[in-house]
Design a protein that fits this description.
- This protein has two domains: 31-138; 144-376, Purple Acid Phosphatase, chain A, domain 2 (4-Layer Sandwich).
- The chain has helices at 26-63, 67-85, 89-111, 117-138, 172-184, 204-218, 234-241, 298-301; strands spanning 2-5, 8-9, 144-147, 159-162, 188-191, 223-225, 247-249, 253-259, 262-268, 287-292, 308-311, 320-321, 325-326, 340-343, 348-351, 372-376.
- By secondary structure, it is an alpha/beta fold.
- An eight-stranded mixed β-sheet has the order 2-1-8-9-10-11-15-14, with no helix packed on it.
- The protein has eight helices and 16 strands.
- Residues 159-316 form the Calcineurin-like phosphoesterase domain.
- Keywords: Membrane, Transmembrane, Transmembrane helix.
- GO terms for molecular function: hydrolase activity.
- The chain crosses the membrane at residues 40-59, 65-83, 90-115, 121-138.
- Residues 1-25 are annotated as: Disordered.
């Protein structure tokens, strides 16, 4: 266990049987591929649908429309997208089955001359472009500060929780995040992983931005952080964080932080192989906080006693609909776990919408899902 008291810091040692001893194994690689596939394919279907609609309406406006040409266009689009992302054939078939009924609903009012193709096309294009501009230029930078109240627990110190900062470069979001945290003046900062998009070799600009962000917030208060998603490898993140003496990286490890005679046990879980058994051991600390990149470990962790489990990864869905919420949780859990507060008889979990944006094939937009910084106000 790491001890952090009065500015003295000792690096933690990985417990026996953690991911460190299993990295590179065939079973783990297979599991990672499976998890990545399950998490990404719902987003692919959504984005394929959007692309099909946009190009379909442009086709309608320029050339007119008949049902066979619209379906043919949709099929060609899916084939091209499938080839570009190299997904399985069954995913392509599922995507077509998902989109075709919607294409018919679009075709129906035009076919029966309820509204002209040109008017319908222009209307949808104006609405679509407006939504895209809002989701790309406004909402991703509209960071809110949300005060979290944990039932049955009163923390004596002001704490800040952030996640998924996912820097591409050091820009407005990074500067705004630092300014907000400076104004809050927390005693401890917790980060549940994903600090930049890409890898250090593929995107050095992003890794430098992430380093600068962590350096500046760690000057405000001690930072505890856990592994996020690959391609950011464990070793890569460790190397990046090594010069930051006030940042503690927990990979299936525990740390102890003593602040004004109040002791915190901080348990950081690995993203792909979480050692939830770490939660079973008894502790003499006043408060237990669990950091996990995803909410997936909640299924096992909820049976253990702790005060708060903080998770990210889901981005709150990133693209949401009013009265419906997220399309997917981005995990193997139901979509309701994409965002919010969850409780069991012995524990509480909060899943945040995070700060940054998806770095893979997803468009750089947020819709009805603002980025957030979580604060727990100290109560004496």
């Amino acid at each position: 266990m790491l001890s952090h008291e009065g500015g003295r810091l000792r690096r933690p040692q990985a417990p026996t049987g953690t991911l460190r001893g299993r990295e590179g194994g065939d079973n783990e690689k297979t599991f990672k591929k499976f998890v990545s596939f399950v998490e990404v394919w719902p987003r692919i279907i959504i984005f394929q649908t959007i692309i099909t609609f946009v190009i379909g309406y442009i086709w309608t406006f320029i050339f007119g429309l008949n049902l066979s040409s619209f379906f043919s266009l949709g099929f060609v689009l899916f084939v091209l997208i499938f080839i570009s992302i190299k997904q399985n054939w069954w995913l392509l078939i599922f995507g077509l089955a998902f989109v075709c009924p919607w294409l018919y609903l679009v075709y129906f009012p035009i076919h029966w001359y309820i509204i002209s193709p040109q008017v319908l096309t222009l209307t949808y294009l104006i609405i679509g472009i407006s939504i895209f501009l809002y989701g790309h230029l406004i909402e991703p930078h509209w960071i809110r500060v949300k005060q979290l109240s944990v039932p049955s627990t009163k923390f004596p110190d002001t704490l800040v929780f952030i996640s998924d900062t996912q820097s591409d470069s050091f820009g407005y979001r990074e500067k705004k995040t630092i300014d907000i945290i400076k104004n809050i003046k927390p005693k401890i900062i917790f980060h549940s992983g994903d600090i930049y998009n890409g890898t250090a070799t593929s995107n050095s600009k992003a890794s430098k931005a992430a380093y600068r962000l962590l350096k500046e917030i760690s000057a405000i208060a001690p930072v505890y952080i856990v592994p996020g998603d690959h391609p950011m490898s464990i070793d890569e993140v460790k190397a990046l964080l090594k010069p930051l003496t006030n940042v503690t990286f927990l990979n299936n490890q525990k740390a102890k932080h003593i602040l004004n005679k109040t002791s915190y046990e901080i348990i950081g879980l690995n993203r792909y192989a979480p050692e939830t058994s770490l939660l079973a051991s008894k502790t003499d600390c006043d408060y237990r906080i669990v950091l996990s990149h995803t909410p997936s470990p909640w299924i096992q962790a909820k049976h253990y006693p702790f005060d708060l489990m903080f998770c990210g990864h889901t981005h709150g869905g990133q693209l949401c609909l009013p009265f419906f919420g997220a399309f997917t949780s981005g995990t193997m859990l139901p979509r309701k776990f994409a965002y919010g507060l969850f409780q069991s008889q012995t524990a509480t979990m909060y899943v945040t919408s995070g700060i940054g944006l998806e770095g893979l094939i997803a468009p750089k937009i947020r819709l009805f899902c603002r980025p957030e910084i979580i604060i727990i106000k100290g109560q004496k």
